[in-house]
Amino acid sequence: MKIVHKQDAIHVSKPEGTNVVYYLFKEYEIHYNEQVPQSTQVWHHHEKIWETIYLIEGELAVKWREGENEKEAIIKAGDLVEAERTPHTFINHTDGMVKFLVLKRMPQEKDLSDIFKNDKVLE
Length: 123
Description:
Layout: E1 10-13, E2 18-24, E3 28-35, E4 39-40, E5 50-57, E6 59-66, E7 69-76, E8 80-84, E9 88-92, E10 98-105, H1 113-118
Antiparallel strand pairs: 1-2, 2-3, 3-10, 4-9, 5-8, 5-10, 6-7, 6-9
């Protein structure tokens, strides 16, 4: 078992108003974000990494591009976004802090869902 305490993680405060705590491992990365009110993250995408975003608290506008088209959706606490390799940004239009987790991974192109569902041995 491995425990990583928050103070041992990588802390970054981005100029656009997102404070991030990065937990970096060999096969994946998890980071905890707090996005300040009335802020917009820079547009970005990843060439190899897929991002999965889970909203913990608040409300975010998610914008993404599909070809020439720009799309937008509002997500709320409990919602999850699979960004894949799509160009995207997150906008906090609210007056409150938004908190979310991001899981970054490199897809193996295999369906491992049965392993995730069934790999538990009771002691």
